[in-house]
Amino acid sequence: MTYLEISFIDLPAFSGQGFASGKLNLGELEVVKISRFKFIWSSNLEDKKKGVTFYKPVGIPDGFYILGHYCQSNDQPLRGFVLVAREAPSKSEAADFSTRVTSPALREPLDYTLAWKSNDGSEGSLEGCGFFWLPQPPEGYKSVGYLVTSSKKPKLDKVRCVRADLTDRCEKYRVMHSEFSFRVWSTRPYHRGMLGRGVSVGTFSCISDSIPGLELPLSCLKNLDPSLHGMPNCDQIHALINHYGPTFFFHPDEIYLPSSVSWFFENGALLFRKGDSVGEPIDVGGSNLPSGGCNDGEFWIDLPSGDQRKTIKLGNLASAKLYLHVKPALGGTFTDIALWIFCPFNGPATLKVGIMNIALNKIGQHVCDWEHVTLRICNFTGELWSIYFSQHSGGVWVNAYELEYTQGNKAIIYSSRNGHASFSHPGTYIQGSAKLGIGIRNDCASSNFYVDSSTHYKLVAAEYLGDGIVAEPGWLQFMRKWGPTIVYDSRTELDKIVHVLPVMLQSSVKNIFDKLPVELYGEEGPTGPKEKNNWVGDERG
User: Fold this and answer.
1) Do residue 206 and residue 242 come from a single domain?
2) DSSP 8-class letter at 85
3) CA 402, CA 391: separation in Å to the nearest integer?
């Protein structure tokens, strides 16, 4: 019997209240994250780096019940979790969170449905086979995970179903395995973001024949605790950023460096109003910026003219800091710390076509640039789980074990030259077709230009803490553009490039140009952090 245990990095003493206490109260349910597993079955026993492996959680505390089994790709270190649950120990406390009903929160299934088996039944031996069982819940209950066995149907007491009002809608996330008609997905809550209450159980979904639009037979859990007691308090937020705050490295050839917002205002940034050609100086705290409303085009921020314009575009690294927005994720079982960095100017792009590099004149440049990364912290343990790297119109989540670090637990963020997109490793990343080597370059490298967010930061928002706990700066309420809109015929510049290329490349390059984001075909300042979809919603990806 082999047990596998996931080892974590050393953690500081974060625990207090419900954060990093090992257990979370979801209302009528109390849950624990299990990260120790016992092997059940693998889809590829010959090649250990291919396929997926299915595990049973072990080391379950007394009184807690399995909700489903765990699956992970074989090409990654074993690092994951499933939740186990029990009814909240105090029914009087649970009554504060939701309307009490007579039926228990957890019940055994009535039976199992065999969802798939690796053996078609034609062979006498079942050795090495995998059987996938979907619990059939009693009326008014939901299944939240599958069980996997290497032989017979599991006993009914091996899993629990959850009362329907304590669950939320679940969706397929990433394909983990696809073989013939059998597919396995990781799952995640459908309702996510700062206001979402869906809780990921860590289980997988599988189906023998995928039908588009078919709703999953599984649900996730739902956090009905309005206080979100598992979230960090203000002191714990500061402890987390001091411990995990990443260092942002800018390219050694970067011209357009970051600055603080206050430095930008102090050094000549102007507020313009539609129909008025003269800009108004902006107060150092942004108190004279119009707040609220929407991006209606009535106001925008621009740079001053003359030599002052040239100076302010270069930024001021000494004043630069990260602006923190802290919010619940996955129903308050994780904490997202979005770190926003400001640059007064976004430089023009460089086009790569094979071995040729062509510096573009205006394409890609615009006044002001807001970029961010997001640290996702596990509220059970206080562990850094992953980081989201924002990259132009998209981004990617990177697991903590895949990151580079400095000073122990502080991840390294590489900011691309001119465009300031964020990447987890140095190198050249192509926005276009990396296979053909055609597209916009994103060059990342270490340098002496860096900002350490663990010491250079300001907490600007954490709505879940309540009114008045975090004083939001005036500029955060400015919902219009941080930069003017300038339309020019960038396509003419790109067409000139296409015409001087070898004929065999022209068609491919033209097709890639057609797929580049429209933001490259004119200058348009970005909106501020609070106007972005991910301020309230989940990150893309």
Assistant:
1) no
2) E
3) 18
CB-CB neighbours of 248 under 10 Å: 25
DSSP assignment of 392-454: TTEEEEEEGGGS-EETTTEEEEEEPTTT--EESSSEEEEEEETTTTEEEEEEE---S-EEETT
Domain assignment of residue 184, given as a range: 27-88+104-119+127-222
288: in domain: yes
From first CA to last CA, the distance across the chain in angstroms is 37
Last residue of a domain, one of 169, 193, 222: 222
| Numbers of helices and strands, H then E, in the chain | 6, 39
Answer whether residue 354 is part of any domain: no
Number of compact structural domains in the chain: 2
Structure tokens at 257: 């460096």
Give the distance from CA 497 to its chain's centroid. 37
Whether residue 239 sits in one domain with residue 217: no
Last residue of a domain, one of 222, 252, 274: 222
Count of CB atoms situated within 10 Å of the CB of 96: 13
* Mean pLDDT computed over 406-434: 94
Say what the pTM is: 0.92
Output 470 or 355, whichever has higher pLDDT: 470
Tell me, what's the pLDDT at 92?
43
Structure tokens at 515: 């797929």
pLDDT single digits (tens) 459-513 = 999 999 999 899 999 999 999 999 998 776 666 667 777 777 777 777 777 776 6
> Could you give the 3-state DSSP secondary structure of residue 263?
helix
Region 193-213: mean pLDDT is 83
Residues 282 and 192 in one domain: no
